[in-house]
Amino acid sequence: MEREVLQRKLTLETAPVHVAPGGSVLYHLKGRARGIGEVLIALREETAYGMCDVVTLGEDEVDVAIYFGRADEASVLEVLEKHSGIETSREELAEAIQMTGLSMRARNQVIDVLK
């Protein structure tokens, strides 16, 4: 998958989305690239999560879709509370869903561009 992220063209590997037993949630995080990058780095230290997509919304604004097991949602919300200026929206992912996201390597490429 090719994406232009903040005026940088990235070729991102894809991988199947793994829905955790008991279900997963998908969060869209919208805001300034650097702030989103900081959140993603902090989350990486707290819990396992994957990334579905990244879209550049403006010169320095992005929308990043991440997913994680429902059991980790409290940890994610705790990290988000420490960062202001980020809009979120939430969707449930059922266990039977089949979708493609980014590989962990691709997720880390995106984080490197955002920070």
Polypeptide structure, described:
- 30% of the residues lie in helices and 42% in strands.
- With 115 residues, it is of the alpha+beta class.
- The protein has a four-stranded antiparallel β-sheet with strand order 5-6-4-7. It has a two-stranded antiparallel sheet with strand order 1-2. A two-stranded antiparallel ribbon has the order 3-8.
- The two termini are 21 Å apart.
Q: End-to-end distance, in Å?
A: 21 Å
Series of secondary-structure elements, N-terminal to C-terminal: EEEEHEEHEEH
Question: How many alpha or pi helices?
Answer: 3
Strand order of the largest sheet: 5-6-4-7
Range of strand content: 35-45%
Helical percentage: 25-40%
Structural class: alpha+beta
**What shape does the CA trace take?**
globular
Main β-sheet description? 4 strands, antiparallel
Poorly predicted ranges = none
Radius of gyration: 13 Å
Extended strand count: 8
- What is the typical, i.e. mean, pLDDT? 94
Brief summary of the model shown:
With 115 residues, the chain is an alpha+beta fold. 30% of the residues lie in helices and 42% in strands.
List the helices and strands and how they pair.
Layout: E1 2-5, E2 8-11, E3 14-16, E4 24-32, H1 33-46, E5 50-58, E6 61-69, H2 73-81, E7 87-93, E8 100-102, H3 104-114
Helix pairs in contact: 1-2, 1-3
Question: Which descriptors apply to this entry?
Answer:
115 residues, two-stranded antiparallel sheet
